[in-house]
Amino acid sequence: MYVGIDVGTSVVKAAAFDGGGRQLAVESRPVELSLHGGFVEQDMDEVYGAVVDVLGKLTGRVPGPVELAGLTGQGDGVWLVDGEGRPVRSALSWMDGRAHELLDQWLADGTFETVFRRTGGAMFPGSPGPLLAWLDRYDPKSLDAAAAAVYCKDMVFQRLTGAARARTDVSDASMPFLDPRARSYDNRVVELLGLTHRRRLLPPVGDPITTGEAREGLPSGTRLSNGPYDLPACALGAGVTEPGDGLLIVGTCLAALVATTELDLSGEPAGLYISTDRHGHRLRAMPAMVGTAALDWVLSTTGVTHAEVDELLASTPPGAHGVRVLPYFAPSGERAPFVEPHLRAELSGVSLETTPADLIRATCEGIGYAARHCLEAAGLTGALAVCGGGTRSPAWMQLLADVLGRPLRVVEGEVGARGAVLAAAERYGVSLDAGEWTEPTAIVEPDSGRSAYYSKGFEEHLGRLDVARGRAGR
After folding, report:
1. Side by side, which strands form the sheet with 2-7?
2. Element (DSSP H or E) covering residue 349
3. DSSP string for 240-302
4. Which three-class secondary structure state does DSSP give residue 129?
5. What is the pLDDT of residue 468?
6. Which residues contact 379 (CB under 8 A, 6 or more apart)?
7. In 93-145, which residue ranges form alpha helices assigned H by DSSP?
8. What are the residues facing 92 on neighbouring strands?
9. For the chain, how long is the longest CA-to-CA vector?
10. Which of 40, 124, 228, 230 has the fewest C-beta atoms lying within 10 Å of its C-beta?
């Protein structure tokens, strides 16, 4: 069997697949996020313990040799580790907002745009550049004590394999320090962010991705590869490799990805270019800050369960009786397809006659409009796959197809873990049929009438967003 490990923001998962890509079993375990005053942190030992736990349970359920394993996980943030991969302090999550003042300064003085024009990465508060600069200013002792500032999967890989030195890969390194042409760190960017004296903390980039043998969690000696991180891993797992084809991940983070061989560093700085193991092939990524988390907040506030969503979406018409939602709920604002750290969610058109169904439909429509905005900015021209927790709602998938005005190739199951296995197989020269592994589970066609309605609604959404961004930028 083949094992994919996906170290998510709120859930750690491990999935087993047979040689044809059929998912045999999944084990998962939730992990905690600590949120306080815009700070969002995670306990690295808890995260690593969850990885070992789910791997032990998975291999116990599906006995037999593990041919190889692939590792992926959440990107961005800062995970400070010592020489053995153990935590120096709590990890700073990609959702963290503490560095927004530094980002405001870089937006004002041109540093933000200069970095984008060099690397194709539009920094946001939870990306490594701002967070490292914040730590250098306010918690230098943690940086002094660290051997490396890595990403989530890198910490896990080092501890699973006992590697002598932390490494990352080109996908995680893409934000914000990697020169996408040279595929190595741009020292001028390090200098611009005031981090030259911390340069030693940036881990070496494995190109191609680093491999090793597991000594914990998996059977001893199991071949393991480190990366790519979850966004490009999902693209692989959904079969998105041809230029122009795209993927929409409807998860905690709403991420739009489009495969490309181009590198266009003009236009409004937003999103990032994610380098892949295939030289010259990249993903133009527009990872918005909030996806299913916005709907979860509304469900919690209205006392509605996930099981009721489909019925409620069917009970109110497109347009939700005039209720509109700008779904920018993240405490650190938005990062794609624009960067505005101070943008917040807005609800309008609400009255005493508004029902929970109206609020839920309006939220789903708002997320759909945000997805369309991201996909258009990323340059989608081909087929569109969709994955993530949102795919469990058929009514929401139909709504998304209508809002986007295009068919959706729904890919269910553990798509990130699947992509991690495909990346590992490529790295080790193991022949797997990628087409068979990435076959969609359903195709959702848009309704032409509703798509025409939502096309006008999208233009209205952009108008409301312009006004909200004007207020946020004051």
Report:
1. 23-30, 11-17, 2-7, 68-73, 223-226, 211-213
2. none
3. --STT-EEEEESSSEEEEEEES-----SS--SEEEE-SSTT-EEEEEE-S-SHHHHHHHHHHH
4. helix
5. 96
6. 244, 258, 260, 262, 284
7. 100-109, 111-119, 128-138, 140-145
8. 41, 78
9. 63
10. 40
CA pair distance 14, 471, nearest whole angstrom: 43
Which whole number is the average pLDDT over 300-318?
95
Rounded Cα distance, 241 and 474, in Å: 41
Quick one: which of 119, 145, 137 has its CA closest to 201? 145
Number of other CB atoms surrounding residue 130 within 10 Å: 29
> Could you tell me the two tokens for 372?
């369309």
pLDDT, tens only, 15-42: 999 999 999 999 999 999 999 988 999 9
Q: C-alpha distances in angstroms, 70 versus 7, 9, 209, 213, 224? A: 11, 18, 11, 11, 6
Distance of alpha carbon 393 from alpha carbon 410, whole angstroms: 11
- Confirm if 389 and 206 have CB atoms less than 8 A apart: no
Question: 3-state DSSP call for residue 314?
Answer: helix
Please name which of 12, 16, 14 lies closest in space to residue 24, comparing C-alpha atoms: 16
Residue type, 138: Y
| Pairing of β 246-250 and β 254-260 | antiparallel
Q: Which two tokens stand for residue 166?
A: 């932390």
Whether cis (ω within 30° of 0) applies to the bond prior to 219 is no
Please give the share of the chain, as a percent, with pLDDT higher than 70: 100
CA distance 113 to 122: 8
